[in-house]
Specification:
alpha/beta, binds zinc ion, about 900 residues
Length: about 900
């Protein structure tokens, strides 16, 4: 039997083999469950759609975390008899993928513009195939039991159709519109990006205090050229303000002050002259100006700052855009046209100084918005884009959370969700990229109207002209990801079997950092387009950090250590999954400590060895349990513990406390089954006269049931062992298709089991006490010792367990007395557990003289160390050394003193026994 299990567990021998076999068997497909008769066709079903990784991405610990949690849920529901679908896929990831391919092309000195749109996109598809294979293979290594035959890609035909349908519907309802607004512009990517893709970067920079001359009776315009040093000569009045971006001066169309600011009141309504460009700009009053900032006056640049943009709209100001797509100054920037924005900044500051308009430069730390993808400084900029009017969609999404249609876990994230949704702004969905879903809107060259259709139109729907051209932009990647829970199931065909069977899905499980990027949008689009919230539960996990609490990111020096593929190579996929699952709490960041990985790998090997032991000692004969089986105390105890574990795991799973469930299964298997039950069972196994069939049955029953409980955490090692078990204890061909354990009511007589736990508990306490004493007295491990136990009412059953007691505590069976009452021997170590008192006569434990001598020696040494430490603390050291060093010494001394007291006590006990 044992030849089925090799000497040690090597994950490499099993993981890929088992994964492949399961996939070939069709076990990951919901149809297979029906075919095997495990679920009724109209029975309960459970569905989760995997967050699609970026197709160009490489696997990281974040993916591993998602996979571990989602696969755990999937395997659990599958075992519970739900028709289960875990649907995988990947995301075309617009900007990210385009950037990667552009970088590859740059190595050959080619730009996307050299290739042109069509050829470039064809190139990206080529790369996509390479990357796609890589990310899929990597994802499989994590052991995810998803149905690869249903795999989707956000740019595949079906999903493209879904995207067009969604866009067209929202467009026709007026929820998607085109408008000119201020957007976040990345000059490197040459595209608008959403607020969420802007990453603030704290930076030490400057605040430039500058001043503009004001027209009055003495001066009404510059007489000299800008740069002559005399541009403002003659001006007698100025208005002063501060800016962090002097280059934007060229786009100013007003100066604003707070209407309640007495310093500037008399200037409101006056005209200032904009330096360099000689533009006349009004001084206006607006409540939005903070009188506390700088001088209380601010420059207004409506085309390049969101707040200024709003002021501009309120006051009807012009909004000149002074930069090109790549953030060069354009012709509206006058003398600075053609310069890069940062070059312009330096030059314009120098010119201000020359003209006497630079008041001072202050150091200033502030956050600069940068592009999430390429880290270039974002340029807020007026531009024509497509937007989703998110406000009404957000209302519906909030309502779904309020009325409980969707629950967000943990609750803290629900509050964050509401805060975000209440303050939602229009969502800019157009991107100036080539890789993505092209916006399905055509402009008519004759009548100028727009045509929006699912299928490419041949003519303008307004005037019938064939002179139409499609919008150049593509959609934000998150627009297609926002349709993921239903586009992958066949929507907009609401009659498709998968949509009917599996929508709405059950859970959206993802990292809390993309709650707004993704979850909020899935909910908004899902409710609007399907009339139903896309899932019942949103479960958010935290970020993965290293053992020092740092977020694991590509820029880390030892990032190799945190590469999931390296971890799997070294510890196995089971160990990685188990570690991630048991180190996490919903919504809290998890830290991945290599020591825990090692612990998890040791755990796989521990179960393996336990299984080997059980299988090699099975012998022949029936191994099934029945209510008629004659169970001994350890049997009743372990079955009772197993029942409690099943109940507890069930309760924890229902409340999403997977980590705690995993820890409890571990503690049961290692700490109770292996350390106590198997150890106790050896007495019977090795006793040739003992009846073994019940023991075998219990050993197997507990092992098999625990494997089922552990399976969602560690699918491979559990499957490998399970398949080696005798046929009669396992039902079916595969553990992953076996039934989730339930407490065994037939075997469960509540009172008898409670009694068993109590009695076994007492026996275990006794054994622990005896083991501690043996360690204290340095008794050689194999030495059998004498014990006298006064057990009162417990002595009857305890005496029946004497063989087990002797085996576990290494007692001499001929020298073990168990009686209700005993005359206490004088020279003995005493262990008290409840009513029971156990005496270990010292003479039988140790050679008293030798022990006395040994303890005296140790005591002398400790006394010396105490004296040294006391001396140190009494001297200069206590005054001069740093407080924490002194404290450390004090703690050390306290420890030594405690040790001294114990030794003195033990020596006194030895003296006593001598004189007695
Ligand atoms: Zn960028
Ligand atoms: Zn037309």
């Amino acid at each position: 039997m044992t030849d089925k299990l090799s000497k040690t567990y090597n994950p490499q021998e099993h993981e890929e083999r088992i994964y492949q076999w399961c996939e070939e068997q069709g076990y990951f497909r919901p149809e297979k469950q029906v075919e095997l008769g495990l679920v009724a066709e109209d029975g309960p079903r459970w569905c989760i759609t995997m967050p699609p990784p970026n197709v160009t991405g490489a696997l990281h610990l974040g993916h591993a975390m998602v996979a571990a949690l989602e696969d755990l849920m999937t395997r659990y529901y599958r075992m519970r008899g739900f028709e289960t679908l875990f649907l995988p896929g990947s995301d075309h990831a617009g900007i990210a993928t385009q950037n990667v391919v552009e970088r590859e092309l740059a190595k050959e000195g080619v730009t996307r513009h050299d290739l042109g749109r069509e050829k470039f996109i064809a190139k990206v598809w080529e790369w996509k195939d390479v990357y796609h294979r890589r990310i899929t293979d990597q994802t499989k290594r994590l052991g995810v039991s998803c149905d690869w035959m249903r795999e989707r890609f956000t740019l595949d035909e079906g999903l493209s159709h879904a995207v067009r349908s969604a866009f067209t519907r929202l467009y026709k309802k007026g929820l998607i519109y085109r408008g000119t607004y201020l957007v976040n512009w990345c000059p490197r990517c040459e595209s608008a990006i959403s607020d969420l893709e802007v990453i603030p970067d704290e930076r030490a920079s400057h605040l430039w205090h500058i001043r503009y001359p004001i027209i009055n009776d003495d001066w009404n315009e510059p007489q000299e050229e800008w740069g002559s040093g005399k541009w403002a000569s003659g001006a007698t009045e100025f208005i002063e303000m501060a800016t962090t971006r002097p280059e934007t001066i060229l786009g100013d169309t007003a100066v604003a002050v707070n209407p309640g600011d007495p310093r500037w009141q008399r200037l409101v309504g006056q005209i200032a002259i904009l330096p360099a460009l000689n533009r006349h700009i009004p001084i206006i009053a607006d409540e939005a100006v903070d009188p506390e900032f700088g001088s209380g006056a601010v420059k207004v640049t409506p085309a390049h700052d969101p707040n200024d943009n709003e002021i501009g709209l309120r006051h009807g100001l012009e909004a000149p855009n002074i930069m090109t797509d790549t953030a060069q100054m354009n012709k509206l920037a006058g003398p600075y046209a053609g310069q890069d924005r940062f070059e312009c900044r330096e030059n314009i500051v120098a010119d201000f100084e020359k003209e006497g308009l630079l008041v001072k430069i202050e150091s200033y730390v502030h956050a600069v918005g940068t592009c999430e993808r390429c880290h270039t400084d974002i340029e807020p900029r007026i531009s024509t884009q497509w937007f989703v009017n998110a406000k009404p969609l957000a209302e519906a999404a909030m309502e779904a959370v309020r009325d409980g249609s969707t629950t967000i876990i943990p609750e803290r994230e629900e509050r964050r969700f509401f805060h975000w949704m209440e303050n939602i702004r229009p969502w800019c969905i157009s991107r100036q990229l080539w890789w993505g879903h092209r916006i399905p809107v055509w402009y008519c060259d004759d009548c100028g109207e727009q045509t929006c259709e699912i299928d490419d139109p041949a003519a303008c729907t307004h005037c019938g002209s064939a002179n139409i051209h499609q919008d150049e932009d593509v959609l934000d990647t998150w627009f297609s990801s926002g349709l993921w829970p239903f586009s992958t199931l066949g929507w907009p065909d609401t009659e498709s079997p998968d949509y009917k069977r599996f929508y709405p899905t059950d859970v959206r499980e993802t990292a809390y950092e993309i709650l707004f990027f993704w979850v909020a949008r899935e909910m908004m689009l899902g409710i609007e387009l399907t009339g139903q919230t896309p899932y019942a539960t949103v479960y958010l996990h935290g970020l993965v950090r290293n053992e020092e609490g740092k977020k694991v990111s590509k820029s880390m020096e030892d990032i190799e250590e945190y590469d999931p593929l390296n971890i799997i190579e070294k510890y196995g996929s089971d160990a990685l999954r188990y570690t991630q699952l048991t180190s996490s709490t919903p919504g809290l960041d998890m830290s991945l400590d290599p020591r825990r990985l090692e612990g998890a790998r040791n755990f796989t090997n521990k179960i393996w060895q336990a299984a080997r032991f059980v299988l090699s000692n099975l012998g022949d004969g029936p191994a099934t349990l029945s209510p008629a089986s004659r169970l001994l105390l350890p049997d009743r105890w372990i079955l009772s513990r197993l029942n409690s574990l099943i109940q507890s795991v069930e309760r924890l799973f229902e409340s999403y406390q997977y980590g705690e469930a995993g820890r409890q299964i571990h503690d049961f298997l290692w700490g109770e089954y292996c350390d106590w039950y198997i150890e106790a069972s050896k007495v019977r196994l090795y006793d040739e006269t003992a009846e073994k069939s019940v023991l075998r049955a219990v050993l197997l029953h507990v092992l098999e049931t625990s494997l089922r409980l552990l399976h969602p955490f560690m699918p491979f090692v559990t499957e490998a062992i399970w398949q080696a078990l005798p046929d009669e204890v396992r039902k079916g061909e595969s553990l992953m298709m076996a039934q989730w354990p339930e407490p065994d009511a037939a075997l469960l007589d509540g009172a008898a089991f409670a009694k068993a736990e109590e009695q076994m508990g007492l026996m275990m306490e006794l054994v622990r006490g005896i083991r501690n004493r043996r360690a204290e007295y340095n008794v050689t491990p194999g030495k059998r010792i004498t014990a006298l136990i006064a057990a009162g009412d417990e002595s009857g059953w305890l005496d029946e367990q004497r063989a087990v007691l002797c085996s576990l505590a290494k007692l001499d069976s001929k020298q073990l007395t168990i009686q209700p009452a005993i005359q206490p021997p004088d020279q003995a170590a005493v262990i008290v557990v409840g009513e029971a008192v156990c005496y270990l006569p010292l003479a039988a434990l140790v050679d008293l003289d030798a022990e006395r001598e040994r303890l005296s020696k140790v005591l002398d040494e400790i006394k010396g160390r105490v004296a040294r430490s006391e001396g140190l603390l009494a001297g200069e050291f206590a005054q001069k050394a740093p407080e924490h060093v002194v404290q450390r010494e004090r703690d050390k001394l306290a420890g030594l003193q405690a040790e001294r007291a114990k030794l003195v006590e033990r020596l006194a006990a030895l003296e006593q026994s001598d004189t007695a």
